[in-house]
Specification:
The chain has 441 residues and is α/β, with parallel strands linked by helices. It is 31% helix and 20% strand. The protein has 11 helices and 16 strands. The chain starts with a strand and ends in a 16-residue tail after the last strand. The structure holds S-adenosylmethionine. S-adenosylmethionine binds next to helix 6. S-adenosylmethionine (SAM) binds next to helix 6.
Length: 441
Amino acid sequence: MNALTLFLPCAGGVEDFLADEVHGLSGLVGEDLLSLRGGVRVRGDWALMQRLNLHSRLAQRVLIELAHGPYQSEQDLYALAAGVPWEQWFTPRQRFRVDLTAQASPLKSLNFATLRIKDAVADRFRAQAGGLRPSIDTQRPDVRVQAHLTATHAQLYIDTSGEPLFKRGWRQDKGDAPLKETLAAAMLAACGWWQPATRSVSPLPLYDPCCGSGTIVIEAAQLLLGLPAGGQRRFAFEQLRPHDPVGWNAIKTEASGACPTSAGGQNDAQTPAVRIFGSDVAHRMVDFAQRNARRAGVAAALQLRGGDALQRLPPCAEPGVLLLNPPYGERIAAAGVAGARGGREAFQSGTLARQRAGGAAPADDVNAGDEFFARLAAHWKSHYAGWSAWLLTPDSKLPGRLRLKESRRVPLWNGPIECRLLRFDLTARRAPPPAPPAATP
Ligand SMILES: C[S@@+](CC[C@H](N)C(=O)[O-])C[C@H]1O[C@@H](n2cnc3c(N)ncnc32)[C@H](O)[C@@H]1O
């Protein structure tokens, strides 16, 4: 298990941040660490695979590549899969599933391709394990086999993560449109508050004034405290044959020793002065965020409050970083003093009902959104001079709505939705020019 090829898929736009993160965790460079489209390829050992699962905040999964080769037909895929010694990775008593992704594959049916790979795995077991073969379980498999097809080549992987890594294990209370934890971490890296290559965080205060269930601020607080991203969950590699519980316990112990609280995260670590802040107009969301923060072991490192982003004053004296994914018409409307049809009740009865019905935002929500963003920019100019504001949005018109010009634009994909993280440097409103002196007779 010393020479594994690992592939860590990630959201589009995150590849270089993930390469930095893997470098920070492994020290690897050059050919051993390649940033590719849609993920990062790393050469390492079993221990590195475990550390990446435990610590990575940006990877969606950690896959071990077991075979790659050219293909033209489903039969070629069968042959490629039949040549993998699956019996070294799991037993015929475990249940598995096969997932397949493809880009420009010439094959007519990807379902049939998936079926042939599944047959090859099962047939190989039947031949090797005295007639025993593992069964399929698409809902709760012990083992996931992943195939990726390009126009000419196929890759076969075994998944070591299980549940995708954005599921950190602490979220039980969700908002209406929670960010994935991996995307929140990508925002923290893209705005520079977190430097994944050096595993350090900025001394600047961080404030999310539309924090919802708290994803951004909880990720930030875990980084500040040095808590491992996956300290509260299990991983698929714990069920694979090469699993070494002693080595894994040593890695977990090392991770919990590196931070002021246990990796189990039940005891909140104390920090000298809170510099991570979140607030939301919906008190239900603040309640969710507080409960999530407690489960994530960071409640004492955060300050969470209710309140309208259009009215809240800076939470601390020195300027810092505002980082948010603001309410956006079609998903979740602005509420509060500039909210759709007068605020929270409208937000609850309008937006949520619409979300349940799967409908789009009506025109008055879009107008209320314009009003919300114009007032937000005016409020920031009056009270947040010296702060930088970073907003994640799929809305290309957001700078116009804010009447601000962005100084940076980082493309980030939220699943299939293309978003941008926009930076606005907030300067104080210009004082009106002094009145001309009164004319003397
Ligand atoms: C897209 S969600 C943010 C989700 C959040 N990042 C999370 O992970 O849960 C937008 C949030 O803005 C909040 N919001 C809407 N209008 C607001 C206002 N005027 N002031 C503060 N928060 C507001 C909503 O309650 C919602 O939680």
